[in-house]
Amino acid sequence: MPELPEVETIARLLREGGEGQPSLLGCTIRDFDLLWPGTLAEPAPRQFRHLIIGQEFKAIDRRGKFLVFELSNHYLLIHLRMSGDILVGEGEQPLGEYSRLALYMENGVQLSFNDARKFGRAWLVEDSQSVLGKLGPEPLDESFTAEAFHRRLQARRRQLKPLLLDQSFLAGLGNIYVDEALHLARLHPLTLANNLSRRQAGNLLAAIRQVLREGIRRNGSSIDWVYRGGDFQNQFRAYQRTGEPCPECGTLIERIVVAQRGTHICPQCQPSPSFP
DNA sequence: CACGAGACCTGTTCGC
DNA sequence: TGCGAACAGGTCTCGT
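^ Those are the sequences you sent over. The predicted structure of the assembly is below.
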């Protein structure tokens, strides 16, 4: 499910609460259930139990697509991967069929990490950099300049789509927002990164920021059963719009496969690079 | 360094 | 109607 805007939306909800949902801040962990052992990346369950009980939620943030929970003495990091979601409620609620890890707070608040496909992972670590250390820059960080982005692109001879999906190159983009950003920037996904001009790099960074900000403003995208709440899916320019008209020129959107991922382009606005 | 294939999982949708 | 194939918001590892 979640790319940067969806994770940002979830982090904000967990931090601030909303619609009858309590904030997690200030909650102290009393107990937990690990329903699918593979969900816990580290440490081992015994050690996890020993460490996490009694810790309080001090801060809740996002880095790339990771949820970052600062506890009293450790960081709890959660990656939702394809189908993960975090549900928080008050009182004893029945856990859903797809609950993989549940945390119970002393004040009755309960958190459930739901994940149908079981790809999601949680880490409890002292040093968050041990998990987050290889992530690239945050695209919305204003101190990350177009010049720096251009330099980063120049250093790689790689197709734009797989490069933008690479979290060590830039943190937070996934299949939806890459397709949307490339369409907005009028760049073909197979274009080689080191072929971009300074101006094209600037346009691409601006396009990335525009689609991410719009995604956040609309509380993310919800498709199928996986995520509820957002409505950015109604603004898609290219993603999952195969056979529908391009919003810029009316040409029908095509679906191709790039880096084993479904990829959506306007063949008119995003012409093939000359020598991919 | 870059790329493709396969693995990890389950659920929904598509095509015959 | 039924049933297998294809596909899905992600990332890791391995071989070339």
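Chain A is about 25% helix and 25% strand. Residues 244 and 250 of chain A are 8 Å apart (CA to CA).

Shout if you want it in another format.
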